[in-house]
Structure formats: structure tokens, C-alpha cells
């Protein structure tokens, strides 16, 4: 494992181009594009104000920089550095800006979700989509980039509009049977749209591309419902995490529940392995380690930690949520399938230090990773069943079916990993600190061994 | 009473006597009651006695009658016709008889009395028990009433609880209705708010459009081509239709793929089903043959069914594409199969139940048989014991009777013969070993002698050389000589006493204490390869990390969990342990070398020693170095570990010390 130098960044704005060749970072009002293999600066663009959002176009040719405060969007071309484009949303304001899948249109959401403006870079044309709903995930493009599903709210009713991304032709428009639609997500094969209600009601609706209601799923009533929804990359499973600390897996044929994963505070499942992060202070080194430490130079790191396999049963620390607060810190908020759909990683919010990995073939708990502090970010390797996570300290944690490891990031000063992103090849991870970033290169050769 | 009886008897006497005379005693023909009655009446009527002079015969007859009634055959006869005197013998006999009867009666009476007492006591007992039972009854009655009371209370409680439940339910319903009303109210309010918000939004957008102070605009240097290189098309109905068709195409494609997957899965399932069917038939078939006797009719039916199924199978295969038919047949066949299987299982269950019963029956029997068996065994054991005893006795007898010494010895030997043979074998083995030992000892002594000789020659050589040198070199003879001897012994610490020792007492070297004491010897015996190995091994631990450290500047691995392979860990630990042990040896050798170095430093600048030193230093220079810190830590560790065994620190007991001062040795 190798680590690069530390670079500056701001607002966690750091993205690898979709083709994996370039790395774009924003430092205040500057946009820096680097070659990922050499980390040399290729281009440097200066925006009009501090950038609040940055995004690569799908063909890796353009970079969008949005300055929400000013209601401005600037687009930069990698091939033609002198080409520029500036979109001014005017006094109507801007809260969200994104590329369309073809990389030639920009969708800007105005303040108060008044409308969505679609700007075409080809024809300079502008079109509006009215009544977008302000919700958790109100807009989603299908994986192949053909269709866009948009949640709308008209006359106190929820609607879903399906657009063809090519020419923004409205393909379907239908009302959904939701009280207050909270989000929608296309299945990876782009044929089924999952729509879920707000947390007040447990309701997941599945619509076909042509707007037919395929199925409705409701696990229980009254208490708080869906917290997170995720499709497996094979479109075979739909995982629903809810406030009752359970994950329910639906199948793609009957849309019925196959299995229900619970997150108990005491793990006594003998088939599961529990790895616990243990702090190892250099002061308490045994004789055996002393020799090792002298050669390694123990002065480099202050605290080390490692995973230890815990004998069952294991008690996982649980934080009781405050009952009189809104949005209680309870329930499954993170659901992530590995790229081969073999594993599912979950995080229960009232056990923030633990990450649960479920085996989707055996439909059972595989591993629990317990850490000393709350888990911030969990990401799967886009190629292999390998999980990277960070807990807001200076360590990177990796899990694979073979075992797990915690790695100290060898950066000067305090580099606390707040978030991380995988490179699309799975060979490196970008670690994002508060205002710094660092690349971590995985050992690529061990895969061949 | 007696009187009354007597009179009574007297009054009734004639009637009874007359009757008895007629009916009961026909044998007493000699009695003449006709005149005896008036006689007795006449003689005793006055004094009212039973017998008077007058009525002797009457009384006699009366007595006879009485006796006859009592069942006594004897009768009193008057000795004379008038009957004044009686014949003594019969009278006495009757008297005796009467007395006997009386006694018997008395006895019976006594018994009766006893019986009555007993009865009385039992009656009392019964009465007591009766009263006790009555008490119990009362108690139980009381208890019963208590229970009734508690039951009543419980029922009351249940009632109250039920009412509570009812109220709770009502409460719940009320609350639910409240919730529902609130929810509806909330949703209504939310809707109102939303409408307001929508209105506001509308107004806002209107205002923004109207004001146009800051125009929203796009400023592009030159517009781009589409990513697919095509030109955009006009929005027409045709286009929308094409979009529709596109959408349906994708949908169809999805359905196609899912259908294909389903078909594949279906085929797999069918295969599995077929296999299961086959196996089921296979399982069922042999059983049918085996139990053909009892369930012949059933079997035939089943066979018919299976035949049908086979037909169904073939037909199904033929009509595989026509779903409906196939499904129906499939379902039918499965149902039939299932029914068959269920029957079979039920039968099996029954059989097993019967079997179980049999088993249980058997289980009761074995206990008895077991006991029988035990008894038999005991008997057998007893028999055997007796047999043995008899044999022993016989033997003893034989010994006693024909007391021949030889036979006795033979008999005695009989017991120990085997043992003797075994001992002989062991003896042989032992002797062989002894021989081997002797041989080895001889070899050892020879070797020791040879060694002594070599040492002697070496000493001589040295003396000659020293002399030579002494004659040639500086006048500081003593010192140089000392140093040279030191130089000679540079290779070993203990070479000086060893030489002395070996020269003086070559044979002592065999003693085990010596061999154990000179443990560092093996490391010295192969110095060159082992030292290099030592360094290699010493370097081995940090090797990986060091190299990686140098190769990749920023590589740092804080920890790894070895993928849940404790064996590997333990293996590694074992290896590490082994390596550490090795290191200890090498380190000891190293330490010694250092010590010798310092000695050499202090010794004089003799040429040969210098040469040797140079050689040694070159050799040592060629050796790969370790960091002093590391070596120091290792040495320290080693020293601390072996401090207890160090004779310099703990001392050597004189009994085990092979180097204790010799009396004879005086070196001049």
C-alpha cells in the first residue's frame, strides 16, 4: 500500500473523471485538474467565486463548477482550455446543479424548488421543468442514461415524470400512491423504478418504466418507516433499511420479502465473525515487539490499532436515541451492495461504530466490524468485493472476505479521513480530510497471486 | 336361679321325659318311667329337693333323659330295683363327662369374653377413627369453603380486569381515533400550507420573470456538438412515437431476459423434479417387491399409478411447449407422487410404531432374561471356583502323598517358567547392550589416548616454537610467552584450563558433567558458516519491513489480522521461537568473540598475533553488520535470560566442577 503526497482541497470537492485518468479538485475558487498516474497538474481554471459543487461530465471532457451563492455555473473543457461557458440563473437562485447523462445538458434546480432549468450546451436552448419536489432524492437517471425520473408535487399529490434524456421528451407522467414521496431510484437495468414514502409511513412502490404499478410493499404501520433504499447491482434485490433497525430484502420477481436482516446489540450468531478495532499503544509493547519497533521506528506513529477477532457473543455499544427529537439517530441509514452483489454492507445509526457485512448468497450475517469511533463513510471497491471505511481519524480500514486491516495514513500533521472515494479501477482510494486529500494506492499485484 | 331351673326342670320333667322316652331314647328300653315319676313326686315333693328317697328312679330317668339330650350315651342305672343306690361307674363317668363339658364351656366362655373385649377395643378404635375422619371431613369442608372464597375473589378480580381491559381498549380506540383525526387535521393543514407555498412559488416566479433585472443567461464560447455526434431532431409526433417504441423495446428486452432466466430456472427445477421422481420410484420399487405379500393390492394400484405417471411423463415431454397441459400433468403427477410418498411414509410410521412396541416389549423381557443370565453366570463362576478349589486340593494331595522333590520343583517351576524365559531374553538383550557399551568405551579410551598424544606433540611443538621465538625476539620473554599462549587460546575462552585438563586427565572428559558444562562447544565447532547464518537470521526479523521501508518510502502497515488462521500464527510463532533460540546460540558465540577481541587489544603487539588478528578482523569485516542497538538489545536479553545458568554469576559447585584445582598440577 502506497500513499501519495497530501494535496489541498476545499468543501470535499475532489472527483476522479469517469474514465479514471484525471483528478479534479477545487481549492477555494480554483479548479485543479491532475493526471492521476503522475499527479502532475494538467490544467488550472479560475472560477468566479468559491466553488460549492463540482462534477465531471460523463465523457470526461467537461467539468461543471457551481457557485450556489451566486447562482452561477461555470463549465470548463479539458481539451480546449480556452473554451468556457457560464450559466447565470439570475436572482431566482440555485440550490443544485448537475450534468445530464449525455454530458451536453445541465440541470439546475432553483431555490425553493421552483423549477428545474435544463440548459443545452449544444443549442444554448433552455427549458423548464416545473413543480419538482423538494425531497431526499427527487431525481434519478437510469444507469444507461436514457431516462430521467423526476418526483413532482402538484395539488398536494405526488407524481412521477419520466423523461427521455435525449431530447427531454416527457414519456410518462403518473400519480403515485404516496402520502409524501421521499425518494425514487431506478433499478440498475433501468426497467423498474422504486419509489418510497417519507419516514412517517413505511411504503415502497415499484413502478415499471411505462408507469404501471408492479407492487407495493409495506412491512408495518404507524411507527417510522423507510430510511434508506438500495438496489443490488444485478437488479435482483432491493434492500430497504428502516427505522426499526432491520433491513428487508425484496426479490425482483414477486417483489416479496425474501429475508430480513436484524441488527441485534448482542451478536451470538456463530457463523459470523466479529472484528473489533483495538487500540495498541506503543507504551505497552511486549518484549517480542520491542525489536520490531526499534527497526520500524516507533516514533512515526503515536497510536496504532488493529482488528482482533472477538469471541462470541459480542455486545455492541448502542446509543439510545432521544425520544423527543426529530430524525432520531436510529435505524439503518447506509446500505451498500458490493459490485458483484455478493455482499451487503449496512450501518445502523444507533450502533454507529459497527459496520455489518451480510452474505447475500447465504442470506446471513458474515462479518461485523466494530470500531473505536463512529463510522463516517463506507464504500465498496467498484471491481472487487473489498470494503473501505473511515471513522474520522487518521486511519483507513479495509475489509475483504479474507480478512481486514487498519492502515495508518502516513501524513504529516493531522490528517483525519472524513470521507473516501474509490477510483473506478479499484486500484486506489482518495482519502478526503478536512481540507486535504491523499491518494492511497492498493497493492495491485496481490490480485494476480 | 338354680332353684328355678330345678323347679322348671321338675315341672316340665314328665312331659319331656315322656317325649324323650318315645322319640329320643328308644334304646333305653329298661327304663320304666311309668312308675318312677310318681315315686319321685312322692318322696321329694315336700322338701323340694331334686332327688329324694322316693323319686330316685324318676330322677335317674330324668337325668338319663337330660344326659341323652346333652348327647351323652352313658346312663345312670340303679343298682337295685327300687333305685336307692346307684351304680357308681356310670355315675362317675357321667360326672366326669359333665365336668368336662362344663370345663369346655367355661373355656369357650372365656374365649368369648376375650373375643368380646377384642371386639370392644376394635369398636373403640373404629369409633376413634370415625371421629378423626369426621374431623378431617370438617377440615376439608372448611378448606373447600376457603377455596370457594378465593375462587370467588379471583373471579371478581377477573371481572375487574376484564372491565379494565375493556376501558383500556376503549381508550386505545379513542386514542386511535384521536390520532386519526389529528393526522387528518395535520394532513389538511399540510395541504393548506403546501397550497400556500405553491401559490407563493407561483407568485415568486411570476415576479422574477416580470422584473428581469438580472437576466438568466447562458454564455457559451461556441456551442458543442452532441456527444453521439448526431444533430438534434425536431420534436414531432414521430419522435414521440419512436420514444414510445424505444421504451417498449427496452421493457420487452427486460422481460425477455427475465423470461429467459426464468425458463432456465424452470428447466433446472424440472430436472431436479425428474431426478427426485426417479429416485422416489427407485426407493419405492424395491420395497414393493419385498412387501408384496401383505399389500399386493396396494402395490398393483401403485404400479398402475406409476405406469400412468410414466405415460404422463412421456406425454409431458412431448407437449413440453404447451404450458397448460404440461402444468396440469405435472401437478397431477406430483400430487400422485406425493400421495404415494405420504402413504409410504405413513406405512413406514406404522411399521416403525409396531417395531417400537416390539422393541419396548423386548425391553421388558430382557430385564428378566438379564437376571436369569446373571444368575447363570454367577452359578458358573461358583462352579469354576469350586473346580479350581478342587484342583488345588488335588494338587496339594498329590504333593503330600507322592512327595517327590523333582516333581514338586517342576510344579513350582510351572508357575514361573514363562517369567524365567522372559527374564532370560531380557538378560540376553542386556548383555548385548553391555558388549556394545564396552566396545564404545574402548573406542573412547583409544580416542582419548590419541588425543592425549596429539596434545603432547602439540605441547612439544609449542615449546619448541616458544624457545625459538624466545631466542630470536625481545627480552620481554615472560610477557610474550604469556601473550602468545593467550594468542593460541584466542579461539576459545576455556582453552587454557581445557588443555591442562585434557593433558592431565584425558579420561575425565568422559564424565557427563563435563560434557554438559561445555555447552557452548557446538557453536564453536562450526564457526564460519554459522556466524554468517547468525547475521542472516538476525537480520531476518526486520528484513521484510526494512526492505519494504526502503523500497516504498511511504509504505506503512500498522497491523494485519491474519485472516482468521490461527495455525499460521502459531506456526510463525513457533518459527520465531526457533529462530530466537538459534540467535541465542549465535549471540553467545558473538559475545565470546568480542571478549576475545578485547583481550587481544590488551595483549602485546606480537607479529603473529597481529597477523591472526588481522585475519580475524578481515573475517569479521566481511561479516554483515547489525545495528549496535539491536545487537545490544539482543545481548542484554540473552544475558538476562541466561543469568541463572552463568557459572560466573552463580558459581559452580565443587562436585560438578571439572576444573577444580588439581593437587598434582604444578607448572614451572
Automatic annotation (TrEMBL), chain A:
GO biological process: lens development in camera-type eye; retina layer formation
Gene3D superfamilies cross-referenced by the UniProt entry: YVTN repeat-like/Quinoprotein amine dehydrogenase
A single cellular component GO annotation: microtubule organizing center
UniProt-listed InterPro entries: Centrosome-WD_assoc, WD40/YVTN_repeat-like_dom_sf, WD40_rpt
Domain of life: Eukaryota
Name of the protein this chain belongs to: WD repeat containing, antisense to TP73
Organism: Poecilia formosa
Automatic annotation (TrEMBL), chain B:
Residue ranges with Acidic residues bias: 299-308
Coiled coil: 183-210
Family affiliation: Belongs to the G protein gamma family. Belongs to the ADIP family.
PROSITE patterns referenced in this protein's UniProt entry, alphabetically: G_PROTEIN_GAMMA (PS50058)
Gene Ontology CC: one annotated term: heterotrimeric G-protein complex
Protein topology in the membrane: Lipid-anchor
Role played: Guanine nucleotide-binding proteins (G proteins) are involved as a modulator or transducer in various transmembrane signaling systems. The beta and gamma chains are required for the GTPase activity, for replacement of GDP by GTP, and for G protein-effector interaction.
Biased composition (Polar residues): 512-530
Domain G protein gamma: 603-668
Name used for this protein in its record: Guanine nucleotide-binding protein subunit gamma
GO function term, MF aspect, one: G-protein beta-subunit binding
Keyword Methyltransferase: no
UniProt keyword Coiled coil present: yes
Organism: Poecilia formosa
Amino acid at each position: 500500500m502506497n500513499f501519495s503526497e497530501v494535496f489541498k482541497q476545499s468543501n470535499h470537492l475532489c472527483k476522479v473523471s469517469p474514465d479514471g485518468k484525471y483528478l479534479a479538485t477545487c481549492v477555494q475558487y480554483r479548479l485543479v485538474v491532475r493526471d492521476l498516474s503522475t499527479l502532475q497538474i494538467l490544467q488550472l481554471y479560475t472560477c468566479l467565486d468559491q466553488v460549492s459543487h463540482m462534477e465531471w461530465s460523463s465523457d470526461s471532457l467537461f467539468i461543471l463548477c457551481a457557485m450556489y451563492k451566486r447562482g452561477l455555473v461555470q463549465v470548463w473543457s479539458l481539451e480546449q482550455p480556452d473554451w468556457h461557458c457560464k450559466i447565470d440563473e439570475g436572482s431566482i437562485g440555485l440550490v443544485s446543479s448537475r450534468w445530464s447523462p449525455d454530458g451536453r445538458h445541465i440541470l439546475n434546480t432553483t431555490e425553493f424548488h421552483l423549477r428545474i432549468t435544463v440548459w443545452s450546451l449544444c443549442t444554448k436552448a433552455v427549458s423548464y421543468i416545473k413543480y419538482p419536489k423538494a425531497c431526499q432524492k427527487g431525481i434519478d437517471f437510469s444507469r444507461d442514461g436514457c431516462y430521467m425520473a423526476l418526483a413532482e408535487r402538484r395539488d398536494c399529490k405526488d407524481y412521477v415524470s419520466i423523461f427521455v434524456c435525449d431530447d427531454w421528451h416527457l414519456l410518462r407522467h403518473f400519480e403515485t400512491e404516496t402520502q409524501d414521496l421521499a425518494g425514487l431510484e431506478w433499478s440498475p437495468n433501468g426497467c423498474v423504478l422504486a419509489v418510497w414514502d417519507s419516514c412517517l409511513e413505511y411504503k415502497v412502490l415499484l413502478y415499471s418504466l411505462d408507469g404501471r404499478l408492479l407492487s407495493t410493499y409495506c412491512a408495518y404501520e404507524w411507527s417510522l418507516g423507510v430510511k434508506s433504499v438500495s438496489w443490488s447491482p444485478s437488479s435482483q434485490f432491493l434492500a430497504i433499511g428502516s427505522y426499526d433497525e432491520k433491513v428487508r430484502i425484496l426479490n425482483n420477481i414477486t417483489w416479496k420479502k425474501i429475508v430480513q436482516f436484524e441488527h441485534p446489540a448482542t451478536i451470538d450468531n456463530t457463523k459470523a465473525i466479529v472484528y473489533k478495532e483495538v487500540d495498541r499503544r506503543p507504551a505497552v509493547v511486549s518484549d517480542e515487539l520491542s525489536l520490531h519497533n526499534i527497526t520500524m521506528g516507533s516514533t512515526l506513529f503515536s497510536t496504532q490499532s488493529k482488528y482482533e477477532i472477538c469471541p462470541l457473543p459480542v455486545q455492541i455499544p448502542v446509543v439510545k436515541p432521544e425520544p423527543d427529537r426529530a430524525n432520531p439517530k436510529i435505524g439503518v441509514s447506509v446500505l451498500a451492495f458490493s459490485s458483484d452483489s455478493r455482499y451487503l454492507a449496512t450501518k445502523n445509526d444507533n450502533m454507529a461504530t459497527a459496520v455489518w457485512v451480510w452474505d447475500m448468497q447465504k442470506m446471513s450475517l458474515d462479518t461485523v466490524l466494530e470500531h473505536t469511533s463512529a463510522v463516517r463513510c463506507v464504500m465498496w471497491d467498484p471491481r472487487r468485493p473489498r470494503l473501505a471505511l473511515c471513522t474520522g481519524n487518521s486511519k483507513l480500514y479495509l475489509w475483504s472476505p479474507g480478512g481486514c486491516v487498519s492502515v495508518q495514513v502516513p501524513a504529516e500533521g493531522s490528517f483525519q479521513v472524513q470521507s473516501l472515494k474509490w477510483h473506478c479501477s479499484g486500484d486506489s482510494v482518495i482519502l478526503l480530510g478536512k481540507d486535504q486529500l491523499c491518494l492511497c494506492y492498493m497493492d495491485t499485484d496481490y490480485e494476480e497471486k | 336361679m338354680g332353684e328355678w331351673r330345678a323347679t322348671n326342670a321338675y315341672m316340665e320333667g314328665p312331659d319331656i321325659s315322656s317325649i324323650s322316652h318315645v322319640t329320643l331314647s328308644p334304646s333305653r328300653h329298661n327304663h320304666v318311667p311309668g312308675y318312677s315319676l310318681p315315686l319321685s313326686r312322692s318322696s321329694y315333693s315336700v322338701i323340694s329337693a331334686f332327688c329324694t328317697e322316693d323319686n330316685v328312679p324318676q330322677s335317674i330317668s330324668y337325668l338319663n333323659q337330660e344326659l341323652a339330650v346333652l348327647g351323652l350315651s352313658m346312663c345312670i342305672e340303679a343298682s337295685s330295683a327300687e333305685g336307692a343306690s346307684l351304680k357308681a361307674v356310670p355315675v362317675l363317668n357321667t360326672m366326669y363327662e359333665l365336668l368336662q363339658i362344663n370345663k369346655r364351656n367355661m373355656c369357650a366362655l372365656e374365649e368369648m369374653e376375650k373375643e368380646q373385649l377384642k371386639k370392644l377395643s376394635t369398636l373403640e378404635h373404629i369409633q376413634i377413627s370415625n371421629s378423626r375422619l369426621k374431623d378431617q371431613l370438617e377440615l376439608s369442608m372448611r378448606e373447600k369453603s376457603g377455596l370457594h372464597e378465593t375462587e370467588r375473589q379471583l373471579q371478581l378480580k377477573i371481572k375487574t380486569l376484564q372491565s379494565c381491559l375493556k376501558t383500556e381498549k376503549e381508550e386505545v380506540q379513542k386514542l386511535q381515533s384521536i390520532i386519526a383525526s389529528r393526522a387528518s387535521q395535520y394532513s389538511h393543514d399540510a395541504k393548506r400550507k403546501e397550497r400556500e407555498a405553491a401559490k407563493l412559488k407561483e407568485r415568486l416566479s411570476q415576479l422574477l420573470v416580470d422584473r428581469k433585472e438580472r437576466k438568466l443567461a447562458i454564455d457559451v464560447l461556441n456551442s458543442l456538438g452532441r456527444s453521439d455526434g448526431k444533430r438534434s431532431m425536431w420534436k414531432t409526433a414521430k419522435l414521440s412515437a419512436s420514444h414510445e417504441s424505444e421504451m417498449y423495446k427496452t421493457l420487452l428486452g427486460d422481460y425477455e431476459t427475465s423470461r429467459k432466466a426464468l425458463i432456465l430456472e424452470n428447466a433446472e427445477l424440472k430436472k431436479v423434479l425428474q431426478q427426485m421422481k426417479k429416485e422416489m420410484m427407485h426407493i419405492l420399487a424395491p420395497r414393493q417387491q419385498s412387501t408384496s405379500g401383505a399389500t399386493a393390492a396396494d402395490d398393483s394400484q401403485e404400479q398402475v399409478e406409476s405406469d400412468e405417471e410414466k405415460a404422463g411423463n412421456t406425454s409431458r415431454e412431448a407437449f413440453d411447449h404447451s404450458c397448460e397441459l404440461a402444468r396440469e400433468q405435472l401437478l397431477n403427477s406430483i400430487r400422485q407422487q406425493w400421495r404415494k410418498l405420504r402413504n409410504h411414509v405413513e406405512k413406514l410410521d406404522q411399521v416403525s410404531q409396531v417395531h417400537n412396541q416390539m422393541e419396548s416389549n423386548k425391553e421388558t423381557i430382557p430385564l428378566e432374561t438379564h437376571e436369569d443370565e446373571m444368575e447363570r453366570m454367577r452359578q458358573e463362576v461358583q462352579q469354576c471356583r469350586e473346580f479350581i478349589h478342587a484342583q488345588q486340593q488335588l494338587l496339594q494331595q498329590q504333593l503330600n502323598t507322592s512327595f517327590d522333590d523333582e516333581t514338586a520343583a517342576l510344579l513350582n517351576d510351572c508357575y514361573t517358567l514363562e517369567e524365567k524365559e522372559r527374564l532370560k531374553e531380557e538378560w540376553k538383550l542386556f548383555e548385548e547392550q553391555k558388549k556394545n557399551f564396552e566396545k564404545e568405551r574402548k573406542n573412547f579410551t583409544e580416542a582419548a589416548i590419541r588425543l592425549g598424544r596429539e596434545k603432547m606433540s602439540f605441547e612439544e611443538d609449542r615449546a619448541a616454537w616458544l624457545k625459538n621465538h624466545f631466542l630470536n625476539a625481545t627480552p620481554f620473554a615472560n610477557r610474550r610467552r604469556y601473550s602468545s599462549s593467550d594468542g593460541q587460546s584466542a579461539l576459545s575462552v576455556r582453552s587454557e584450563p581445557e588443555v591442562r585438563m585434557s593433558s592431565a586427565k584425558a579420561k575425565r572428559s568422559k564424565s557427563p558433567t563435563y560434557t554438559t558444562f561445555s555447552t557452548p562447544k557446538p557453536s564453536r565447532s562450526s564457526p564460519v558458516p554459522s556466524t554468517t547464518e547468525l547475521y542472516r537470521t538476525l537480520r531476518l526479523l526486520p528484513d521484510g519491513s526494512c526492505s519494504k521501508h526502503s523500497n516504498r518510502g511511504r509504505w506503512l502497515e500498522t497491523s494485519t489480522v491474519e485472516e482468521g488462521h490461527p495455525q499460521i500464527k502459531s506456526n510463525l510463532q513457533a518459527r520465531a521461537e526457533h529462530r530466537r533460540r538459534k540467535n541465542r546460540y549465535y549471540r553467545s558465540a558473538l559475545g565470546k568473540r568480542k571478549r576475545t577481541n578485547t583481550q587481544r587489544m590488551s595483549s602485546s603487539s606480537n607479529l603473529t598475533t597481529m597477523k591472526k588478528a588481522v585475519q580475524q578482523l578481515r573475517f569479521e569485516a566481511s561479516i554483515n553488520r547489525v545495528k549496535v542497538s539491536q545487537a545490544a538489545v539482543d545481548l542484554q536479553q540473552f544475558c538476562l535470560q541466561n543469568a541463572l545458568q552463568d557459572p560466573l554469576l552463580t558459581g559452580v559447585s565443587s562436585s560438578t566442577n571439572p576444573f577444580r584445582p588439581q593437587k598434582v598440577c604444578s607448572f614451572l
